[in-house]
Amino acid sequence: MPSLAAGAKTKELTLNTAASTEKKVIVATGTAKTSRKVQLSWTKTKGADGYRIYGNQCGKKSTPKYLKTVKKGTKTTITKIGKRKLKSKGSYKFYVRPYQNVNKQKKNIGKSNTAHVLMRAGSRYANASSVSVKKKSITLKKGRTAVIKAKVKVPSGKKQPKNHGAKIRYMTSKSSVVSVNSKGKIKAKKAGKAAIYVISENGKYKKVSVTVK
Fold first, then answer.
1. Minimal CA–CA distance to 179: which of 191, 187, 190?
2. Residues in domain BIG2 (predicted)?
3. How far apart are CA 159 and CA 153, in angstroms?
4. What residues make up the domain containing 206?
């Protein structure tokens, strides 16, 4: 299969799965290694033959473009978007799409969160350095609710970037067992176990284990 050039448009093919199948949460984390280099890493997806990386400058009118394909490993270094090098005062967003090779075609089997990365060295703003949660495990009875209390830590004297979406996002590994809203409120739906991922703008995260009885 011919390789795609960075910035090229790709035909998105998604592998059909049963409606009851729970999708694995894929978390992408972006780190500004230097003023012009980003290291993007992500959680491994079982059964994936590779990962497609997308990214662009931040902005509502800026649609992420295909950048590269990674066939081995779960991290890569990004120094440019298309033919343009990353800017030291820029802000960028990235996401990852794992795929499987099916009948000589790459079919998507998921999509990560969008990780926003601030490059501004010396700015009063900074990317999150970590995420903390008050409770790492929660047990609920069916129908009951709870709120996950979480905090994002940034380097001393810095603030999180503005206008880059929610400061914290939440994702559930099994929506049939427990649901979660944008404010971290979870609801137990049926007996079982699941994980809630608490994710910062740049993809730093913590997992909260939830057991429903």
1. 187
2. 130-207
3. 9
4. 130-212
CB-CB neighbours of 26 under 10 Å: 23
For strand 91-102 and strand 50-57, is the pairing parallel, antiparallel, or unpaired? Answer: antiparallel
Number of separate domains in the chain: 2
Both tokens of residue 109?
A: 């089997």
Range from 18-27, 28-37, 136-145, 187-196 carrying the lowest mean pLDDT: 18-27
The DSSP bridge pattern shows strands 137-140 and 205-212 to be parallel
Looking at the structure, do residues 112 and 192 belong to the same domain, yes or no? Answer: no
Task: State the Cα–Cα distance between residues 70 and 159, nearest whole angstrom.
Answer: 33
The region that residue 115 occupies, defined by phi over 0 for left and psi between -120 and 50 for alpha, beta otherwise, is beta
Cα–Cα distance, 192 to 173 (Å, whole number) = 12
Gyration radius of the chain over CA positions:
18
**Inter-residue contact 142 to 213 (CB < 8 Å):** yes
What gap in Å lies between CA 195 and CA 207, rounded to an integer? Answer: 6
Could you tell me if 140 and 111 lie in one domain? no
CA distance 181 to 199: 13
- pTM for the predicted model, two decimal places: 0.86
Q: Which residues of 159-172 are buried (b: 16+ CB within 10 A; e: fewer)?
A: ebbeebeeebbbbb
Confidence of residue 164 (pLDDT cuts 50, 70, 90): low
32/114 same-domain check: yes
How far CA 181 is from CA of 75, 169, 172, in Å, comes to 29, 9, 9
